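Following the same procedure, backbone shapes were mapped to integers, yielding the entry below.
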Amino acid sequence: MRKIGYVRVSSVGQNPARQIQQLKEIGMDIIYEEKISGATKEREQLQKMLGDIQEGDTIYITDLTRITRSTQDLFELIEIIRNKNANLKSLKDTWIDLSEENPYSQFLITVMAGVNQLERDLIRMRQREGIELAKIEGKFKGRLKKYHKNHAGMNYAIKLYNEGNMTVNQICEITNVSRASLYRKLTEEKN
């Protein structure tokens, strides 16, 4: 009967310290931590944790958005945890309780997962609306190009390519520019 923490932030630039501190305050036996988007299913530490949990363990998270990003994902996760006779608790979402002591648990999980999904869908809808308005007003330029005309790595890669003393693989390794990007830029320059 271990207390297992799971901490996730979406990018390397984000700091998981707040989540870790909150979980340490209630005494964790182990904390799994990763920096990756929740939208992907390729969360290595989550999969490792799910493989390691044992009967009677309780997984603690600070809130549901740290462990799941969709209703379907939540239900799949709950099924795995229940099959191992373990529990899931959220510090923020106190209504979640996978134990059989709470007959309303599945109902509340369904409702709250739906609310979380609705919130994410509304955020995406507002974002699309904002982009459309910015396009109409001429303020939306789209995603900035990574390899703009003053990008030092790309300019150096083109210089090395034009000198002809190195292979494309060597150039890409030195400049940290992908092969596809280098070839695309070279094609643009020819036209």
Q: What stands out?
A: The longest strand covers residues 3-9. The longest helix spans residues 105-136.
